[in-house]
Amino acid sequence: MAAPCWGVTAVPHRVKVEIFDQAYTIAGELETAYVEKLARMVDAKMRDVARATGTVDSVRAAVLAALAIADELEALRAGREGQDDAVRQRAERCLELVERALRQSA
């Protein structure tokens, strides 16, 4: 979602979605297609959890789905931090090589 331009007020709108056979109206400034995509993802995760646990309680399925989504997010964050560290280390090694080459050519 792009940030609103200065002096332009974003107009909130409503998007109707269905998650785990329940209708919800989501109000906000997000793109309709994006909200619908998120709703499909949440619905799929709740259905996966319900199928795996045998639960039919929507609140329990929602909590377990939220935990599963939080776990996925944390794993992605941890992976990204590892990648950032690896890139930083490679950049430092490259800088050392360039500095060494410059000293030798001087």
Provide structural commentary.
The chain has 106 residues and is an alpha+beta fold. It has one domain. It is built from two helices and two strands. The chain has helices spanning 32-53, 58-105, and strands at residues 13-19, 22-28. The chain has a two-stranded antiparallel sheet with strand order 1-2. A hairpin with a 2-residue loop joins strand 1 (13-19) and strand 2 (22-28). Helix 1 (32-53) crosses helix 2. The chain is elongated.
- The neighbouring-strand order within the major sheet is 1-2
Distance between the termini: 50 Å
The sequence of SSEs as H and E is EEHH
Helix percentage: 55-70%
| Count of alpha/pi helices | 2
Features:
106 residues; elongated; alpha+beta; 66% helix; two-stranded antiparallel sheet
Helices and strands in order:
Layout: E1 13-19, E2 22-28, H1 32-53, H2 58-105
Antiparallel strand pairs: 1-2
Helix pairs in contact: 1-2
Explain briefly what this protein structure is:
With 106 residues, this protein is an alpha+beta fold. The protein contains 2 helices and 2 strands. It has one domain (13-105).
